[in-house]
Amino acid sequence: MQKLNILNTREVKKIKEIILEDYGYFPEEEYAYLQSEKGKNDKEKIYLVNKDLARIDLKKLRIDKLGLYFAELKDNHIRLSKEGVQLLGKLAEDNKKELKNVVELNKKEVKSYFNGDDLEKDLGDKNRFILLRYQKEFLGCAKYKDQKILNFLPKIHRGEVILE
Q1: Residues 5 and 84 grouped into a single domain
Q2: Are 78 and 129 in the same domain?
């Protein structure tokens, strides 16, 4: 059972600054942000819930999972979850905002990505997290390092992809 803490305004502001810097957009919608306590590898998971739900005293409940797994915070870097990328992409599109660090993949790259392979691609010298998109669909978040897109796609989402 994981322990979740409701983030205060200052903590949400820090997350907002990182996401704005890395991806160029932060959801304007009113969400409450929950953060799991540090676990293996000092990763802290961020979850989104409806603000009304945040009024509940979580310490009195035995909760296994709550909210949408949005991102992972580690060493002042945020790696968005697959669902977090899709939500951010949809909200940015709805608000007519352009996201930064979006990499368009072709059909061959998408198939390779869903097989769990790292992708060889020259996106410059700067190591960073990037958002992957095929046509208009956001696929997830990956780390770009040394001319490679490192695959973070969970095994449960991997497999044969049917593309038109």
Answers
A1: yes
A2: no
| C-alpha triplet 126, 127, 133: angle, nearest 5° | 100
Map tokens 């870097």 to a residue: 77
Same domain, 35 and 95: yes
pLDDT at 74 over 90: no
Domain count along the chain: 2
Question: Which domain, by its residues, includes 131?
Answer: 101-164
Same structural domain, 124 and 85: no
Dist. CA 64–CA 127, nearest whole Å = 34
For 154, residues 6+ apart whose C-beta sits below 8 A from its C-beta are 82
pTM: 0.86
User: Of residues 101 and 158, which shows the higher confidence score?
Assistant: 101
Residue 4 burial class via C-beta count within 10 angstroms: exposed 0-12, middle 13-18, buried 19 and up: buried
Task: Determine what percent of the chain falls in helix, strand and coil, rounding each to the nearest 5.
Answer: 30, 30, 40
d(CA 32, CA 116): 33
Q: Give residue-wise pLDDT tens across range 36-73.
A: 877 665 568 999 998 877 677 666 666 656 789 999 98
Q: Which of 48, 75, 100 is the last residue of a domain?
A: 100
